[in-house]
Specification:
The chain is α/β, with parallel strands linked by helices. It contains eight helices and five strands, in the order ααβββαααβαβαα.
């Protein structure tokens, strides 16, 4: 009997395997959302439509590892979950504290700022803000200059047709969550506290709602899966993820 094995590298490989798994075992999606600490009960009922956007570009607001859209038309709810994953990698460790300290009192844009986990999720918050205001750039938002694309240049959605399709899918969300999956254990309350401090400094003019921010440990995600696809990809990437 023929057998096919598919492995993907690092966090992208893990996210792809999770999405492939849920395409077959969609009844397992609620357990994943609970692990992400998504609390809205309307998405745990029977008549829910789930949409997954994988590595979706949002133009100047960056790509997102995974976006989950959960719609309950009967309850008129649409929950959007932006998920960004960070890994420790085999050579270089990941430190949430270092990323936080580098950003907290920053006055000038530094190399790698767009890959800082706090900034990645903040850009998705700014994206939601302009969608809610029915505009396509950050002109009307008061934000620190270091978060503009270039000096005096606002961040824009642009005209890419695929990006615009994604924008329509997340438009009119009733609640939005911003989730970091990390290679080190941090309670969501600890992660939220760091955003609270950033809201007092670098994000002070346009503050992200900390109650909608979540932090999840990769090991707790891995525990959900026992199949050859997702579990197999965690084993393939052993030492790379967390």
């Amino acid at each position: 009997m023929n057998k096919v094995e598919v492995y993907g590298y690092s966090e992208r490989g893990i996210f792809n395997s999770i999405v492939f798994y849920f395409g077959v075992y969609f009844e397992k999606i609620p357990n994943f959302l609970k692990t992400l600490e998504i609390e809205d009960e309307t998405i745990y009922e029977q008549e829910v439509k789930y949409t997954f956007l994988v590595e979706q570009s949002f133009s100047d607001f960056g790509s997102c590892d995974l976006v989950i859209i959960a719609e309950n038309q009967q309850k008129k709810s649409k929950i959007v979950v932006f998920i960004e994953g960070k890994v420790k990698t085999s050579q270089v460790g990941f430190s949430l504290e270092q990323q936080f300290l580098k950003l907290k009192d920053c006055n000038v844009k530094f190399k790698g700022i767009s890959s800082n986990i706090f900034v990645q999720l903040y850009y998705k918050y700014l994206l939601i803000k302009i969608i809610q205001n029915n505009i396509d750039e950050t002109t009307n938002l008061i934000i620190n200059d270091i978060f503009k694309k270039d000096k005096n240049n606002e961040r824009k959605i642009g005209n890419n047709k695929i990006v615009l399709k994604a924008i329509e899918k997340i438009r009119n969300a009733t609640k939005i969550y911003y989730v970091a999956i990390l290679p080190e254990y941090k309670q969501s309350s600890d992660f939220q506290q760091k955003y609270l401090e950033l809201n007092k400094t670098i994000f002070i003019d346009e503050q992200i709602p900390i109650n909608n921010v979540r932090s999840v440990y990769w090991a707790n995600v891995e525990k959900l899966f026992t199949d050859d696809v997702v579990k197999g990809n965690f084993l393939y990437n052993e030492g790379q993820i967390y």
